[in-house]
Amino acid sequence: MTMTTIRxxxxxxxxxxxxxxxxxxxxxxxxxxxxxxxAGAVVVGGLMIAxxxxxxxxxxxxxxxxxxxxxxxxxxxxxxYRSGLVASSLLLVYVTILFCFSDSPQQVVAGRSxxxxxxxxxxxxxxxxxxxxxxxxxxxxxxxxxxSLIIKLPLDPTPIIGFFGVxxxxxxxxxxxxxxLQDLRTVNAELDQRVADRTRELSEALSREHIEAxxxxxxxxxxxxxxxxxxxxxxxxxxxxAISRLLEIPIGQILEHNFDEILQSPILTEDDRxxxxxxxxxxxxxxxxxxxxxxxxxxxxxxxxxxxTDGRSIGNVAVLxxxxxxxxxxxxxxxxxxxxxHELRTPLNAILGYSEMLRDAIYGPVNSKQANAADRILKNxxxxxxxxxxxxDKAQIEAGHLSLQFTHFATNxxxxxxxxxxxxxxxxxxxxxxxxxxxxxxxxxxxDPQRLQQVMINLANNAAKFTEKGSIRMRIYRVTDEHWAFxxxxxxxxxxxxxxxxIFDPFRQVDGTSTRAHGGIGLGLSIVKRIIDLMGGRIxxxxxxxxxTTFTVILxxxxxxxxx
Length: 564
Known about the structure:
Number of strands: 12
Order of helices and strands: HHHHHHHHEEHHHEEEHHEHEEHEEHHEE
Largest sheet: 5 strands, antiparallel
Structural class: alpha+beta
Strand order of the largest sheet: 2-1-5-4-3
Helix content: 55-70%
Distance between the termini: 90 Å
Number of domains: 4
Strand content: 5-15%
């Protein structure tokens, strides 16, 4: 017989957990006492047959054991198929009566069988309510007293006191057990309720998440731009059909593949491959979209990090847009601007030359009004030529046609060239222009001196334009063994923190009276930044309102070998 069969035989199904516990316990007691009674009957019967025990003394014991077995079987049937309360009560009464006839009256009242009556007292508190032990103590005391009176034996109160002591201990133990079980059921009920509540909340959350996931999927499928989601290992975990159309790759070869496999496509140039990998590995939402060539298409790529609810990064999402048409229009625009700018420079230079000759009276004497008019023509023509030059540089940069001519040149040439252009401008505004070259700087540098001069003059000219009093200082110094830098600092009105975010954007100017009063089209700083980028350097601005502005340019001693 297996343990499962035994367990099923002893357990009694009941809707009341206390009733089920007591009835199962009763079955265990019945099974145990039945085995004990059978073993006792076998031992007593064998000893009587062998003559070791007297039949007159132990005959009733043997009979009580046999009757006990039969009674246990009947009570087991009542307990399993009828009532546990009735079965337990019958067992206690039956056991008490059985103990009364299990030995001689003298032994039952004041002898070897007296301690038997403790058993039903203890059993009562377990099989029935806790207070039932006192009922059995009273019943047992009445039985002992009655038997004593019948056989006319003096009653000894000591056993009765002991019965009530045992009843008290049994009651206390059973009551503690019942209270513990009740507390446990209360806790279990609360836990069950909590589990039910959490299950319902989880079900509702999953339903909402399912709905939101359906909406997100519908949105994702409806987006014309290609969307691809990567985990931290660059594995593609989500992609929409548009990405397949843009890259002309089956969606099955994108999903659950590493994006590095896509980057190895021969369609991508080495520069675009490195740039795209860099964008996805160092995601910065503040950077502008990057453009790459994909076969005959121009794609705009923008990446952003993806975080979980705890703010931890779980990957990146990249959006790819077909920028081919816009790129073609932009290229046409740049070509047109470059052509027009180039064509404008020739007549402007002629205007500048003739204006200067008129002002200097090369063709004959002029009065003060004529000289003043010629000077105005000269100044405005120079301003217009600067704008045309900026437009031409911008168009060349956008078209990728701006080339750098790297050569070796003397470090002090940078300071001398700056002074040759800016001394008069600074003097006219009564500004102090100073340049400092740190002693640790080498005498010779490697780079494009003309473009460096363009950058320095642009920064110094901006400083002079917006500084009404004070000074303009340029400092050239070594940063590391691989990099050098120069600062252009002024004592002007400064730039607000919120305006510093877009000062390097083309056609953007800090909106204010000072800025608008000095005119300009907002290309100078954007051209400066692009030139610095082409040189492999970086530019920073440090400023606050009323505290002046400092532009810092950091460049490598050995610039990139190939820049366009």
